[in-house]
Amino acid sequence: MTDKAISPLRRRLIDDMAIRQLSPKTQLHYIRHVKRFADFLGRSADKATAEDVRRYQLWLASIGTTVPTVNVSATALRFFFRVTLSPEEVGRLLASATNIKHKAMLSLAYATGLRASEVVSLKLTDIDRDRMVIRVEQGKGKKDRYVILSPKLLKILRDWWRAARKKGWMSPGQPWLFPGYRGQHTSARQLHRIVRLAAGRAGITKRVGVHTLRHSFATHLLEQKTDIRVIQVLLGHKKLDTTALYTRVAISALGQVTSPLDFLLKMPG
């Protein structure tokens, strides 16, 4: 495997580990184990299947690899497959949405980095077109915050709203952006199911969930050199032992951030 082929993957893996604040030693081990796995395959590691991983683990055992080393390798590969997801794969995932509602929900999850529970509980009044932000009301930690409303996402949400209104789903007094049954909003469980179905149609073999889109949002912003403190605010993260890293960001500052959704080249029209 050439350095040129591994470089983009390695870059994304490093960014993922940086966001998770893994130690330098752990990062080095993960990079080495992923590279060794790719060398075993003879092709890019992101093309591997579950059977490839199984064959690799059997090979490690057959050459007398110690149990601790096998365990570290398994942890590294688990991180790689469950956390790292490329922009190209996200594009395929979004393109595989079967209808405008699914497309809107998946696009919103990736474009904003919201949690599943936050996506489904958004209200129509939370969409602030004037300031190009979305208000997240009573999110985790019971503190409202604002996230990016990208131009591309706004267009998708408008298309969804028009289609839903035409079908009679946006009835007067109905507050939800994504209505469900009996006056309730769509459930987080249904959103997780939508992600899995789209991933299957896109041919993505990695384990994918709403958390994957959320993490991809953060990773791809980091790749764009967005300040990590801004990303923390957008994600709604706050750790008591790292309050110095968690800074209040003005809404006007959020307007300077470009959502990763707008960088996708192949987006259904």
Write up what this structure looks like:
The protein has two domains: 3-84, Orthogonal Bundle (DNA polymerase, domain 1); 88-263, hpI Integrase, Chain A (Orthogonal Bundle). It has a three-stranded antiparallel β-sheet with strand order 1-2-3. Strand 2 and strand 3 (145-148) form a beta hairpin. The chain is mainly alpha-helical and 269 residues long. Helices cover 55% and strands 4% of the residues.
Sheet with the most strands: spatial strand order: 1-2-3
Q: Could you name the CATH class of the largest domain?
A: Mainly Alpha
Tell me the CATH architecture of the largest domain. Answer: Orthogonal Bundle
Q: How many structurally independent domains?
A: 2
Work out the helix count. Answer: 12
Shape: elongated
Might you state the CATH topology name of the largest domain?
hpI Integrase, Chain A
Quick one: biggest sheet? 3 strands, antiparallel
Unreliable stretches (pLDDT < 50, length at least 5) are 1-6, 240-249, 265-269
Number of strands: 3
Helix and strand composition category:
mainly alpha
Spell out the CATH superfamily of the largest domain: Intergrase catalytic core
The overall average pLDDT, rounded, is: 82
Distance between the termini: 36 Å
